[in-house]
Amino acid sequence: MMNGALGAMVVESDPYMPHPEECSADSTLSVVVVGASGDLARKKIFPALFALFYEGMLVENFQIFGYARSKMDDEAFRDTIVETLTCRIDAGEDCGKKMDTFLSRCFYQQGQYDDATDFQRLDARLSVMEGSLCSNRMFYLSIPPKVFISAAANAADQCASRTGWNRCVVEKPFGHDSASSLELSQALGKHLQEDQIYRIDHYLGKELIENLTVLRFSNLIFEPLWSRKYIRNVQVIFSEDYGTEGRGGYFDEYGIIRDVIQNHLLQIVALFAMEPPVSLEAEDIRNEKVKVLRSMKPVEMEDVILGQYTKRVSKAHTYPGYLDDDTVPQNSITPTFAAVAMFINNARWDGVPFLLKAGKALNKRGAEIRVQFRHVPGHLYRSKFGADPDAATNELVIRIQPDEAMYLKINSKVPGLGLRIENSRLDLPFHEERDRELPDAYERLLLDVVNGDKRLFIRSDELEAAWDLFTPVLHKIEELQAQPELYPYGSRGPVGAHYLGAKYNVRWGDLSYSGNGSSKS
Ligand SMILES: NC(=O)C1=CN([C@@H]2O[C@H](COP(=O)(O)OP(=O)(O)OC[C@H]3O[C@@H](n4cnc5c(N)ncnc54)[C@H](OP(=O)(O)O)[C@@H]3O)[C@@H](O)[C@H]2O)C=CC1
Ligand SMILES: O=C1O[C@H](COP(=O)(O)O)[C@@H](O)[C@H](O)[C@H]1O
């Protein structure tokens, strides 16, 4: 177990690992990215580490090790990661030099994930570099699930720091259903204390998701409205305008519910709907999230719509269907789109539909939360809005990406003579008037790991509760071999999603159109 037998600085009875401050000022940080040759490592993890270094967020003494089976030396490794590093912050200022310094601290160790000796070699190299300094080690497991356990075991048993903290970041998928997730947790628990496990859900690191709790709990005007009394429905919508492209092999084993809805979207719902936490401490927030998840009704088959995208040929381009991906089995019925209706059986949310929708290869890329408020009772201005009461509904939109923004749709008078009323926006854009780009989710989350802040990571009981909500319906879908509704690449997705909305009197906010055909979403 990490820092168990080996942990000279840890008292055995203390269930928590020491925090960085427990190493003196002269500490060193080693980050080991296991699966360093992979897509996620190159696209997200190394760029985020570089951004943290660039912003001066890493300690003075640090080293980054890539670990994977691919044959490479340090130089070849640096050549592969440099391609994805960008000087996105203050591009002009000294970036090239900083990049060179960063790269000079990056090293590569080739090894198998299940070979103890290979990890001992890594440990030996780390120890040489760390010298006599107190050393903290972070292991980022950026590998496919089937090698998770062996890699975690070897990192913990062969490669743990003997002087400082050891933390292990685990990427989703955290299992396939309740049983496999429990198995995974138990297997990890043989080598790591829960306190050392950082289950990452990168949606929790997105700027607007961090802002969701600030919006709710630091403004007087929202919290009083935040319940069934004023909120008619809540929609959490994720769409991508590209298909599985290259990840079909992984995706086909999971499908969109496991890939996006059971984790990213459900986490958003939990944060959105939780009661005010006692404090901003990680455990207080996670206690509230788990309570909401446990109050939710497991998803029922009749509240699920499934879809799968098909080829679309336009004049300029042929967009491949899901089944055209070579890594996807022929005749696969794995859903690339799903819409589900969920309910929270507690006093605050009883009867309010939470509609979640996620799809690949749709007409646009975006992620947003839409909160539709109830109609104004006895609406004095009813006649000004025509027959459609939804045209006058207040709606709060939290756009997670792209172009992060929050806006509230309100009704106001069109200036001038007469009394025309329009539905317009109170807008809080996040890009305009700000001189820097927003940090990527992985930057925030990696910094949190370094700081030992677990607020934005999933606790094991949250994970269990999340799987309990989806496991029965996922099994049912498999048992029934439920056929997804086909939709063309680049379309708005299956029409079934509209029927699901209609069943609960919900009109999807992202697809609303005003009478004259222009988008008002
Ligand atoms: N890519 C993404 O955008 C996202 C990924 N994730 C998760 O992050 C983790 C890493 O993802 P990603 O980088 O895409 O994964 P990859 O498929 O790119 O795999 C990462 C590395 O693992 C090794 N590997 C691949 N297949 C096997 C295998 N069958 N047996 C042993 N080793 C293997 C390879 O390294 P080598 O051969 O050199 O050992 C590969 O470079 C996964 O758990 C994924 O689900 C989560 C969210 C998004
Ligand atoms: O976890 C995942 O997320 C990505 C979408 O992440 P984003 O930050 O680019 O919105 C998704 O494409 C992938 O299928 C899923 O595994």
Descriptive notes:
With 521 residues, this protein is α/β, with parallel strands linked by helices. The chain has two domains: 20-200, NAD(P)-binding Rossmann-like Domain (Rossmann fold, 3-Layer(aba) Sandwich); 204-438 and 459-511, Dihydrodipicolinate Reductase, domain 2 (2-Layer Sandwich), CATH 3.30.360.10. It has twelve helices and 18 strands. Strands 16-15-14-13-7-12-11-8-18 form a nine-stranded mixed β-sheet, with helices on both faces. It has a seven-stranded mixed β-sheet with strand order 3-2-1-4-5-6-17, sandwiched between helices. It has a two-stranded antiparallel ribbon with strand order 9-10. A hairpin with a 4-residue loop joins β9 and β10 (318-319). α1 (39-54) packs across α10, α4 crosses α5 (148-159) and α6 packs antiparallel against α11. The N and C termini lie far apart (52 Å). Residues 35, 37-41, 68-70, 142-145, 147, 171-173, 250 line the site of NADPH dihydro-nicotinamide-adenine-dinucleotide phosphate (NDP).
